[in-house]
Write a structure and sequence with these properties.
Layout lengths: L7 E4 L2 E4 L7 E17 L5 E11 L5 H11 L7 E13 L1
Antiparallel strand pairs: 1-2, 3-4, 3-5
Length: about 90
Amino acid sequence: MYRHRSPFLSINGYLLSEGGERMATANLVNSVLVLSFDAGMDESGKPIVKRKSFNNIKTQATADQLYAISQALIPLQQYPVITIERHDARELYA
């Protein structure tokens, strides 16, 4: 049986590379739900995209939960939705 050997190891809660260097860690600190809308075309024929951002989304919210809330908001909007996005901000530290 083949066992994959990870190039990383953990000592005292820190992730280290094979050479012993400390690896950076990312901590999710903020999430934003962004809906993009098709607002038509400008005079030169370029698409107009409008966006609405919903800040302070719980970082624990799942993709299914965000999609469900988006589906509830879409009928209340003036323009058709193009995309539903989640923007996560992470704090990096070593």
